[in-house]
């Protein structure tokens, strides 16, 4: 998250893209399709239209840094880009593509010293995993991710096997 240069308009945009994928569990295509009216940072809601799982509302946690980043992006977007229909646009106003975001994440990961391959989906996966680790009900995680089928969400639970093992060990000691 610290790799984008927030002084550059593209760095600020890229950090906002990363934050929404990680903090709201958005798919890369969903974040690229957002329009300015879809994001209500004050209410912490994001309207996702025609996402892979259909229309839904995604939610952002209360966080002053995210609020500042998004407000600053919207302010600078109006002043320093050609605008455009999409929330995350290029300097000339065109949409940011899925391919661009994939390449940007790989580039920023290298800049941050991460040798492993990093993909946009890893941010979404981290979002889901953290919710589960915090004890959020899997059905609520399903809704947050926009999965139609609970079995799709259950794929995220495999990382919690260590928690099950630890729980059983603790129980055996009792």
Number of helices: 8
Distance between the termini: 42 Å
Strand content bin = 5-15%
Q: What are the low-pLDDT stretches, counting only 5+ consecutive residues below 50?
A: none
Helix content: 40-55%
Mean pLDDT: 89
Q: What number of structural domains do the residues give?
A: 1
Explain this structure to me?
The protein is mainly α. It has a 3-stranded antiparallel sheet. The model has no long low-confidence stretch (mean pLDDT 89). It has a single domain, classed as Intergrase catalytic core (hpI Integrase, Chain A), CATH 1.10.443. 53% of the residues lie in helices and 9% in strands. Helix 1 crosses helix 3 and helix 5 packs antiparallel against helix 6.
Short description:
By secondary structure, this protein is mainly α.
Topology:
Elements: H1 9-24, H2 28-33, E1 39-40, E2 45-51, E3 54-59, H3 64-80, H4 98-111, H5 120-133, H6 138-145, H7 150-154, H8 161-173
Antiparallel strand pairs: 1-2, 2-3
